[in-house]
Amino acid sequence: MPPLFLAAALTLGADPAPSTKPILLRPARVYDGVEAKPHADWVVLVRGDRIEKAGPATDIQAPDDARVIDLAGMTVLPGLIDAHTHLLLHPYNEAPWEDQVLKEPQALRVCRAVNHARSTLLAGFTTIRDLGTEGAGYADVGIKQAIDQRIIPGPRMLVTTRAIVATGTYAPRGLAPEWRIPQGAEEADAETLARVVRDQIGKGADWIKIYADTAQGDRGIRPTFSVDEVRLIVETAKSAGVPVVAHAQGKEGMRRAALAGVETIEHGDRGDLEVFRLMAEKKVALCPTLAAGEAMSRYRGWNQRDPEPAALKSRRAGFKEAIESGVTIVNGSDAGVFAHGDNARELELLVEYGLTPAQVLKAATSAAAKALHLEQKVGAVRAGLLADLIAVEGDPTQEITALRKVRLVMKEGVLYLQPNGR
Ligand SMILES: [Zn+2]
Fold first, then answer.
1. Which of 110, 214, 235, 343 is the most buried (most CB within 10 A)?
2. Gap from CA of 84 to ligand 1 centroid (Å)
3. Ligand 1 midpoint to CA 382 (Å)
4. In this structure, are residues 331 and 85 in contact, taking their beta carbons and an 8 Å threshold?
């Protein structure tokens, strides 16, 4: 955390707008976000907020006024995408989720979120889909505006505002039944769903997030909305041009969400080959959030030198079935449960759980951009796309931990981090 903070402080006052001069990035190789093999000796020319050219150094002349940034030994790749974050949460070993929702003033949570946004960007993540403020109302809408207006540094945000739960199914819970407890998401049911979906869209939601199942105390993980209710949500959102994302850990919640037309399913902890195949058939992508599961195990006392707890073992086995099913896997970490800025943990775990580094990089670039309907803007190193680019030391297609050595971060042509603190 402190080094990132320092790096941010050094670059924050820099140039808040895209450079007026073209910039030529000269790395050892370029991973373009699509092809598994990186291109040796490619360069990338950026003008304004766009990638003007990307290709072999021999084919691309730097304009006379270009600023050339030498990135010897480094790989340039598209800015990374994390499709599942909560900027308004901080790690649960610092404060339990219930305390964050019930006791932390919204202004405090927003101040933390400002730091979280900066840490995320400087870790190389230039786009996030933030999946619910968990009791902090519509604060994500304002944070997104602050980033877009370059008041604070942070990733491009797709926001969901409060998210939607079926009445009586979410948390905090556990007080006497006569008390009405504020909830971490907005409650709605068959009669009110359309109104709540429209209201959240009206207030700025880019996606509608629902909880297709929840953990309900002793009753375990239970599906919430019926297939017809989820259909109503999807139809209402779709007619406004807004896609729907569902939290679902259990098989039945996943099945209902997939049948009703949601576009991505989050977690999928207890999914099996059958339901992952259904998702593949319905073109529903999976955000596995492996890093959140690992963090929760650590908070319960597990340390990585000990044998893996049962929950992680079964997660690993389930994930093998996801891979086998052919379901599209998109990088989504659930950062907030663990530290913002540590988002690369998800990519490391995706490799540990059986994907190749190149598959994982695609899941965090072009595949994620497609799942989020951003493929015409970001997710690849290609002429005409926005200049969301990062440079890391080494070759992440060989060794995914190279993503921990981010040396340059550019978003829409603006440099937020560059080698040698310049
Ligand atoms: Zn989440």
1. 343
2. 6
3. 31
4. no
